[in-house]
Amino acid sequence: MEYLQTGKLKSEFLQNLLGRIEIQDERVIVGPGIGEDAAAIDMGGHYLIVKSDPITFAAHRIGWYAVNVNANDIAVMGGIPRWFLVTMLLPEHTTTPPVIEEIMADLRGACDDLGISLIGGHTEVTHGLSFPILSGTMLGEAKKEHLIRNGTIRPGDLLYMTKGVAIEGTSIIARERRDAVESRFGMDFYERCVGFLEKPGISVIDDARLARTSAGVSGMHDPTEGGVLSGAYEMAVASDVGLHLYIDRVPVFEETEKLCSFFNLSPWSLIASGALLVSVPKGEANALETAFLRQRGREDAVTMVGEFLDRGEAVCIIENGKRREVHPSGRDEITKLFD
Fold first, then answer.
1. What pTM does this model have?
2. Fewer CB atoms near the end CB (10 Å): N or C, the chain?
3. Together in a domain, 120 and 206
4. Is residue 68 in some structural domain?
5. How many domains does the chain divide into?
C-alpha cells in the first residue's frame, strides 16, 4: 500500500475526490475545488465567504498565524473577514496554563488588529500530539460584484505576484533552526528573519483590496503550502488553462535565499503566506502596476511572473530560457526540516 507524504494531497487525487461531491443547495456559489480559497454562499444581498484552515508547521505565535492565514483566504475572494472560530488541540505533558494564555492573547490581538470578532470554537488537551494544532474557520462578507474566483482566468491573462517568496517559510525556518541560523548568520539576521511575520508580513488583505479596486482582476490566490509553484499551478488547474511561470522573475528575499541555500530547500515550493498571486487580462496590467507603484512607492511592489496559456497546454516553469513541465507534489519544502 502506498503511504502518502506529509503535506497537501496531489492536485489530481484531490480533484478526483472533490469531483464526487454533489452540492444540493443552489445558494452555494463557490464550492470545493482546486485553487478556490474559500466557499461562497448567496445570502440575498451579499455573499457569505467561509474558510477553514489549520496551522500545523508553527508553534510560536500560532494564534496570530491562524487568524491571518484564514483572513487572507477571505480577502483573495474579494471579501472582508468578520468572524473567527478556532479549534485548539494541545499536546499533553507540555501544555501549561501560560501556554494557553499566550495563544489566546495572540488570537485576540490578531483579531483586534483586523477588526475580526472571535466568536467561538473548542479547546482541549489531546493525546498523541507533539505540538499544538489550531484549526480556524473564518467567515466574511463580500458584495456580489466584488466576488473573485479562480475559475474565470482566460488564456493570455498575466500572472502577477506581490512582495516575494517565501515570507512565512523564512520565519519558520529561523525559529525551528535558531541555533544553526544564529551560528551561521548571526543574531541580527536571525531576528530579521523571525520578524518577517510582521515585516514584510504574512497578511495579504491590503494587497488584495488594492488589486481588486485598481484593475479588472480575473483571479487571486494566497499561496501557502507548496509555495508559489503550487499556488500558480492551482490557479491554472482551477480555470483549465496552461501556464508559463517565469521562475527567474519570481522575487526572492535575500534572507530567504540564504536560508534555502544553507538548508538545501527550494524557495519556490516553500510555504509562502504573505505573497499574493493576481491574474489580470493584459489590458489591465498597466492599471495594476500603476496602482501598486503609487500606493507602495516601489516598482517591485508587484511583479509579472507568468502568462496563462490555452486550454490543454501544460503548466511549465521557464528557467534560464528552458521550459520544464511541472506537476507539484503538494509537499512543502518546510517538511524536510522535520523529517
1. 0.91
2. N
3. no
4. yes
5. 2
Q: Are residues 126 and 155 part of one domain? A: no
**In which band, very low, low, confident or very high, does the pLDDT at 18 lie, cut at 50, 70 and 90?**
confident
Are 256 and 183 in the same domain? yes
Residue 97 lies in a domain: yes
Q: What is the CATH number of the domain that holds 120?
A: 3.30.1330.10
- Cα-only R_g, the chain: 19
Strands 277-280 and 39-42: unpaired
Last residue of a domain, one of 127, 146, 165: 146
Q: What is the mean pLDDT of residues 248-276?
A: 95
Span 174-207, pLDDT tens digits: 999 999 999 999 999 999 999 998 899 999 999 9
3 in a domain, yes or no? no
H, E, C per residue of the chain: CCCCCCCCCCHHHHHHHHCCCCCCCCCEEECCCCCCCCEEEECCCCEEEEEEEEECCCCCCHHHHHHHHHHHHHHCCCCEEEEEEEEEEEECCCCCHHHHHHHHHHHHHHHHHHCCEEEEEEEEEECCCCCCEEEEEEEEEECHHHCCCHHHCCCCCEEEEECCECHHHHHHHHHHCHHHHHHHHCHHHHHHHHHHHCCCCCCCHHHHHHHHHHCCCCEEECCCCCHHHHHHHHHHHHHCCEEEEEHHHCCECHHHHHHHHHHCCCHHHCCCECECEEEECHHHHHHHHHHHHHHHCCHHHEEEEEEEECCCCCEEEEECCEEEECCCCCCCHHHHHCC
Last-in-domain residue among 146, 176, 200: 146
Rounded to whole angstroms, the Cα distance separating 11 from 91 reads 31
